[in-house]
Amino acid sequence: MSDRPDPADRPAGVDAAEPLPGGFIAEVLRVGDSVRRTAPADDDFVAALLAHLARTDLAPRHLGTDEHGRQVLSYVEGRVPWRDREDPAYFADPALVALAGLIRRLHDACAGSPLAGTAETVCHGDLSPKNTVYRDTPGGPLPIVFLDWDRAGPGRRIEDVAFAGWHWAELGDGADPAELARRCALLCDAYEGRAEGLLPRAELLGVMLDQIEGTWRGISAGADRDEPGMRRLRAAGAVETVRGWHDWLRRHRPTVEAALDLA
């Protein structure tokens, strides 16, 4: 006999909670047209940011907090590439150009706002394919919405662009430094459009290296503090993998900068 409850026993009008893919750090459930997830440490800032972005359609809507203290967000239809490289179209040039446009819209919407304070803008802080919703178009899947705003905060435009640069490219043994440079250049060109000079491109690789180092060190330190999510990441080999990316980029930095004409 199964211990699982029979759906017929659920009270009328009550939606079942459906676990969503991902959620490596935070629990993520879909309940009807909403998503319930572990609330971030600064949920007030995230709620204010999502309210500020409500007219842009760049993020889910913040719907409050449920009886379990979880963040309640609107559900966004689409596809999320949870498994790395599951479909090359997610990483194709048209998707990368569209990604740059989304990042630019986010930064332009927040620049000069009280949320940014004295900073240049508000950054998402954790841009990756797994935090991005795609929809199919005649030209292939294109990104439409960013998820997981837990690490959002005031920052510089170059920070999100650099973060996207190494998350939408291949790093490590076997990767092509020239291809990383090409993708970064495409991302920067599409982001800036006619506003040349908006990004300090000479800082791109330095920012990227700092982010990658901060990632593996952060996972390691969090695991040492016995944080469950960080322990799972370290056990899965994330520290070694990301540290390997950092070492690879340091070795190939001159090649990437030369290809970007930054040397």
Automatic annotation (TrEMBL):
Family matches, as SUPFAM superfamilies: Protein kinase-like (PK-like) (SSF56112)
Aminoglycoside phosphotransferase domain sequence ranges: 46-194
Name of the protein in its database record: Trifolitoxin immunity protein
Source organism: Micromonospora musae
